[in-house]
Structures are given as C-alpha cells and as structure tokens.
Amino acid sequence: MKRVDGFHALRHFYASTLLDAGESITALAEHLGHSDPGFTLRTYAHLMPSSKDRTRRAVDNVLGVRLEPPARPDDGLAA
To answer: pTM for the full model?
Structure first.
C-alpha cells in the first residue's frame, strides 16, 4: 500500500485540517506522537494555504487596520 492511501492519508488529512483550523504545531506534534514539532511543521504545513491570509488578518486586527474600505457618500445608497 502506498503512503498516500489508507491510514497515512487519513493522518495527513487530520493534521492538515487541525493546522488550518489554528491548532498549534506543538499541540499537534504531541497528538501525532512526534518528538520534534519542527518535523510536524515540515511534514504538514504545505497544506495550509489560508495561513498567510489568517496571519495578515491577525496583524490587521492588532493594528486596527480596516479590512474593508469605508463606505463613500456616493456609493449609490443616498436617495
């Protein structure tokens, strides 16, 4: 059986899903039985495409950056 099938695929999906949901690398490494969180990160992080967006949003929230531009008076809502 190839590693992409069966249990390893399920394990990879589980880890990637938890990382994408915000689980910490150290907690996930412990759940998976990895002694080195760096191994967990190197193995599973490539499947976290939304992590860059989540990081930008977190920094924007801390800095008070508006994610949407303010409504303009001429946006068609005025009568």
So the answer is: 0.55
